[in-house]
Amino acid sequence: MAQFNPDTKQVLDELLAEYPQIHGGKMFGYPAYYAGKKLCLCLYEEGVGVKLPEKTAQELLATDANVSPFQPLGRGRMREWVQINLSRAEDYRQYRSVFEESIRFVLEPEEK
């Protein structure tokens, strides 16, 4: 059974409620958030996986001690994904700008 922090889900539900293009779903059995049809955020064990432009992901990995590579179910490192790991659910509110960047990134039209 998927383990995640329900307090973190409550904080994300509150933060993302103001974005009409975001809707809930599942990823690997965990609560997830989709922008349109594309996955942008998901709870995973004690953290939150976030899809970001590769440059932003690399910057966060290099500068933020709370950020690690996102490797769900032991998979290889995903270049456009990071995992934010915080012990207090309320502290995820400090990452609002990161979540907003994820939403914008996922909603961008793909270049042909």
Describe the protein's architecture and organization.
The protein is of the alpha+beta class. The model has no long low-confidence stretch (mean pLDDT 93). The N and C termini lie far apart (39 Å). Strand 1 (22-27) and strand 2 form a beta hairpin. The protein has one domain (6-107): Aspartate Aminotransferase, domain 1. The protein has a six-stranded antiparallel beta sheet. It is 29% helix and 29% strand.
Give the ordered list of helices and strands: HEEEEHEEH
Classify the fold: give the CATH topology: Aspartate Aminotransferase, domain 1
Distance between the termini: 39 Å
Unreliably modeled segments: none
Which secondary structure elements does this structure contain, and how are they paired or packed?
Layout: H1 6-16, E1 22-27, E2 30-35, E3 38-44, E4 47-51, H2 54-63, E5 67-69, E6 81-85, H3 96-107
Briefly, what is this?
The protein is an alpha+beta fold.
Features:
112 residues, alpha+beta, Aspartate Aminotransferase, domain 1, 6-stranded antiparallel beta sheet, 3 helices, 6 strands
